[in-house]
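[job 4471] stage=fold_predict status=RUNNING
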Amino acid sequence: MGLAPPALGDEDPTTVPTPTAGSVWFGPSLDWSQDLPANYTERLGRTPSLYTQLVDYPLTERSGIFLEQFAEQAATQGAGAVLTLEPTVPLAQLGPDDAEELGRRLAELHEAHESFFLVRFAPEMNGSWNEWGQQPDAFVDAFREVATAVRDATDHAQMVWSPVYCAGYPYGAAFGDVAPGELRTLSELDTDGDGIVDERDDPYGPYWPGRDVVDWVGLTLYHFGDDQGRLDNQLEVDAGGDTAAEDLGSAGFATDVVPGSGGGREEVGRALRLRREHGTGVVLRTFRRGRAAAVPVGDRRTVTAARGGCRAHR
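[job 4471] inference complete, writing structure tokens
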């Protein structure tokens, strides 16, 4: 498996590089307080192509420093920077000045380090556990604002739209659930117009910001380990297991599903059909304590960015 950084010389220097046919991209999410790319590369024996990092948005002095250090460290190996922006204020309070500042900083970092970025803005926006979750109209407005500013500022950053997979949507009493309130509007989420929000409503469509502002399509999938407070982490096919209602420690996703019988696989397939509907590629971000994947719009290649590993293939 090839783990070398992208061959930038083979790419248009005015764009973000993408994996070539038959090649593989790999990259970790490091604990930057204890690890550095050089140390990781020495242990692995290969050079990653991507690194990932969470950064608070709007940028503050502190998060701006994190962003600069992250870009610099990734660039030491010619690697891409997968930048996840997590809003720290309500979406409606984000403004064009915040987006323009982000774009300016990304442009400066490219000039200084030849960095390139995949920008994941407010991911898992259809989940109930984030402060920015399940607010489609506000999310779409904020995403478009960020995308416009980033594109105006630099050709070396692209936008990633990354919901979470819909098994269990709208997730009910999910782990870390944000209590429903005035930020969530029934009319935005009730896509079938029956007066309630349930599994029959579209878990993706209301959050789609438009093909003109999305470069990569994303999807997050979770697997929770035995120490995540779940009563029924693994299904016994013969004996069954606790139902979602009994499993009060559940993270809100559909449980008690036999692999191969539909369930999670069906929901993943439902998300992947977005590629056909919008003519896009797909980004898969899978987690067994953290994994991710990404494919540029209009491309069928897949890049998997994992905590501990990230790979891309056709």
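[job 4471] summary: The CA atoms of residues 281 and 297 lie 4 Å apart.
[job 4471] exit 0
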